[in-house]
Design a protein that fits this description.
This protein has six helices and no strands. It has helices at residues 2-19, 33-44, 47-65, 71-86, 95-120, 128-159. The protein has one domain (29-159): Orthogonal Bundle (Arp2/3 complex 21 kDa subunit ARPC3). It is mainly α and 169 residues long. The longest helix is centred in the last third of the chain and has 32 residues, at 128-159. The protein is globular, with a radius of gyration of 17 Å.
C-alpha cells in the first residue's frame, strides 16, 4: 500500500501538470509539481525514498517531455539527495521555509536545464529564459508548493493506520 500510494500520487501530479496547469500559466510558465514532489519526499521520507523519488520522477519527466533525456533526472536526483541529506540539519516546516527552499530548488532546476541545453544543444535556449521565465517559474513553485505540501501531509495522515486502543486506560 505504501509504494502504491506514492505511485498514485506521482500519476495524479503528472496528470494535473500535463493537462490542467496550462489553464493557470503565467507568461507560458507553469509550476513544476514533480519538483515539489521530490522536495516533499526529500524532506518527509527516508534518504533512499528522497533520492529514489528524485531519480524516478526525473526519468518519468524526461520520458514524457520528449526533450533531452537526463536533464530532469540529473536535477531532480540532486535535489532529492540534497533534501534527504540535510533534512535533519535544516528546518523545512511552515509556509516560509517551504517556499524559500522550493524557490532555491526551482532556480537550481532551471539553471541545470539552461546550462544543459546551451552546452549540449549549442544555444537552443534564449538568454531571456534566465531573467524572464526562471524567476516566474521559481516564484510560482514557491507559491504553489506550501499548498501542495499541506495537501500531501493530509493525504499521508489519512494513509497512516489508525491505532485503536493506545492510551486508553
Amino acid at each position: 500500500m505504501y509504494y502504491l500510494s506514492k505511485i498514485l500520487i506521482v500519476v495524479i501530479l503528472f496528470s494535473i501538470q500535463t493537462t490542467w496547469l496550462d489553464l493557470f500559466s503565467v507568461g507560458g510558465v507553469v509550476p513544476d509539481l514533480a519538483l515539489i514532489w521530490v522536495v516533499y519526499c526529500g524532506v518527509r521520507f527516508s534518504k533512499t525514498t528522497g533520492v529514489g523519488s528524485g531519480i524516478a520522477t526525473g526519468i518519468l519527466q524526461d520520458s514524457l517531455s520528449g526533450g533531452l533525456l537526463g536533464v530532469n533526472t540529473l536535477s531532480k536526483s540532486f535535489i532529492g539527495l540534497f533534501f534527504s541529506a540535510l533534512k535533519d540539519k535544516i528546518f523545512v516546516e511552515g509556509v516560509i521555509p517551504v517556499a524559500f527552499f522550493l524557490i532555491l530548488s526551482s532556480l537550481f532546476d532551471g539553471l541545470v536545464f539552461y546550462f544543459s541545453m546551451n552546452t549540449v544543444l549549442q544555444g537552443e535556449v534564449s538568454s531571456s529564459f534566465l531573467y524572464q521565465s526562471l524567476p516566474v517559474y521559481s516564484f510560482y513553485n514557491g507559491m504553489i508548493g506550501p499548498v501542495l505540501f499541506l495537501v500531501l501531509n493530509r493525504f499521508q495522515d489519512w494513509l497512516k493506520p489508525k491505532n485503536s486502543g493506545y492510551g486508553m486506560g
